[in-house]
Specification:
With 546 residues, this protein is mainly alpha-helical. It has 25 helices and four strands. Strands 1-2 form a two-stranded antiparallel ribbon. It has a two-stranded antiparallel sheet with strand order 3-4.
């Protein structure tokens, strides 16, 4: 009798082929463009990058701002997670939603907001100057980028560390307290070491996000050129472009982020261990000055981080005359964006929705292959699936343009190429959460379903997938919110027919139409809030952790 073809083998080969076409092939074309000049192998553009200070200083700028931002996010985020999970804080549910909103909005919106607040004619700048006569230092350049990225990314540390703290057994903390280790000493000696694997994972994510951020330095950097901005200017600059040079810089970016990823992986493996909280931490009420300081720290950090978004919402109702805000309030900015809004929202939901559906489907299949069908091919798929985690979005966009700008496959300028880019970029989030969930589901559950006459695929989709729902949903919501706020790949791949909400905001900001930009940004924030509330309702969870 002929053997039945195993459907999972076909799925493995299909996913591997898709990765080969849409990720490995574009990366190969990018490498080829970087090293093949006039038909000959050449390292000319790599030498050019390291021979002129203007170019290699951008790398130094990126490292400087990224390292500083990462350190500040850890300093802010870890204590905030500790206070939030250890003590009763008034309004904690609202605080968590606000914290999540701070990191889920597009970074360049934060940059634009701080320009309105602390720019040369900003609200806070003018108030301080009027009251004290003191001129606030410029928000532009290194300081401004650092401020925006730190306040934008510390929530990631908060969410990751909060998730780790839920796995700490309360008996460990009680034992340490009985041995005289309490307060600040317990925080550094017990809590931080127990959360170290998660802290390292959060550090990597923050570093990658800060290093690859494109919109913030472009808007607020002025003369402070970072790596992603340099890549964009070389490929799409108004003064002059050099695609070979842009490709060479992109390869350097990939190599740098790969090294950082491997260092983090080594450190994580060294500190790796598993925890199960039989007795989870129970929040307790702080008393006296301690309670006041905990609440002050929490509220102050959250207020400062959310202030830009509050002000953006406020300015969306201010009257404008041309591009200038004038006294009075109305819905004029919303009326003016009506035409752009319908187009950009529909594109956001069509392109983002299509990407999300495929992300969920592919992530679930890959998770099953990695956990249940371990072999060489599936190990390769698992490795390849994590590559986009270390590749900046602008590099992914440029690679796709190089690969699919000529026959036989022409995708440049279409919605399809944007969907492909979003899938490639956002798959790792849902894959990791799905894998973690599937590892906790016994194989015997599927075997029982198969023994009762269910097919392998039927057992997977009817039994296993429903049991994976929470893990899939966690990864999907993170993927969705990052999809609707995506800029770095979208700005490279879009055309006038595929403008999304984030791109519309960026376009209005770059034109100086701050009223329209504020209205669009407010709508994007409302969509983000709605997404988070929907997630909490569906998952029946009052708290969100990663």
């Amino acid at each position: 009798m002929k053997k039945k073809i195993d459907i999972w083998i076909l799925i493995s080969l299909g996913i591997l082929a898709a990765y080969a076409l849409f990720l490995l092939f574009p990366m190969f074309k990018l490498l080829k463009e970087a090293v093949i000049v006039d038909g000959k192998f050449s390292m000319e553009y790599f030498k050019l990058f390291f021979s002129q200070s203007f170019y290699y200083s951008s790398l130094g700028n990126s490292f400087k701002v990224t390292i500083c931002a990462t350190i500040i996010t850890l300093i802010i985020g870890i204590p905030l997670a500790y206070f939030y999970n250890m003590y009763d804080i008034a309004g904690k549910s609202v605080i968590q939603i606000i914290i999540i909103l701070c990191c889920m909005s597009a970074p360049f919106i934060g940059a634009y907001s701080w320009i309105l607040l602390l720019g040369r004619n900003g609200l806070v700048t003018n108030i301080i100057k009027f009251l004290t006569g003191w001129q606030v230092p410029s928000i532009y350049g290194f300081g401004g980028i650092l401020l925006v990225l730190s306040l934008q990314l510390f929530p990631l540390v908060f969410l990751y560390v909060s998730g780790a703290m839920k796995n700490i057994d309360n008996s460990l903390l009680e034992a340490s307290e009985n041995m005289g280790c309490s307060g600040v000493k317990r925080f550094f000696k017990v809590v931080v070491p127990l959360c170290m694997p998660t802290i390292l994972a959060a550090t990597l994510l923050v570093f990658m996000r800060a290093f690859a951020d494109f919109g913030t330095p472009l808007l607020i950097g002025e003369g402070y050129i970072t790596f992603p901005v340099l890549i964009y200017n070389q490929y799409f600059g108004e003064v002059g472009t050099n695609h070979n040079f842009a490709a060479a810089i992109s390869i350097i970016a990939i190599l740098i982020t790969a090294v950082i990823f491997l260092v983090q992986k080594y450190a994580s493996d060294k500190f790796a261990f598993k925890m199960n909280a039989l007795h989870p931490i129970e929040r307790k009420k702080a008393h006296g000055i301690k309670n006041i300081l905990i609440h002050f720290y929490t509220y102050f950090v959250v207020f400062v981080a959310f202030l830009p978004q509050i002000y953006v919402m406020y300015t969306s109702f201010q009257n404008t005359s041309g591009k200038i805000f004038v006294p009075g309030y109305s819905f004029n900015s919303y009326k003016q964006i009506k035409k752009d809004l319908l187009n950009s929202i529909s594109n956001t939901f069509i392109i983002g929705g299509a990407a999300l559906i495929l992300v969920i489907l592919i992530a679930v299949l890959i998770a099953y292959l990695v956990v249940r069908r371990k072999n060489v091919v599936n190990s390769v798929i698992d490795t390849i699936s994590m590559l986009p985690y270390i590749i900046p979005g602008s590099v992914v966009g440029i690679a796709l343009i190089i690969a699919f700008n000529t026959k036989p496959i022409v995708l440049t300028g279409t919605a399809t190429i944007m969907i492909i880019a979003l899938i490639i970029r956002r798959l790792p989030y849902t894959i990791r959460s799905s894998v973690a969930t599937l590892q906790q589901i016994p194989m015997t559950v599927e075997e029982a379903a198969i023994s009762l006459g269910c097919s392998k695929m039927g057992a997977f989709f009817k039994v296993t997938v429903p049991m994976m729902a929470n893990g899939i949903l966690s990864g999907a919501i993170l993927s969705w919110v990052t999809i609707i706020t995506e800029l770095s790949t979208a700005i490279i791949l879009y055309n006038y027919k595929t403008v999304t909400l984030t791109l519309s905001i960026y376009t209005q900001v770059s034109r100086g139409s701050y009223g329209k930009a504020a209205a669009l940004a407010t709508i994007l924030n409302l969509l983000t809030v709605a997404s988070l509330l929907l997630f909490m309702k569906v998952s029946k969870s009052k708290e969100i952790t990663f």
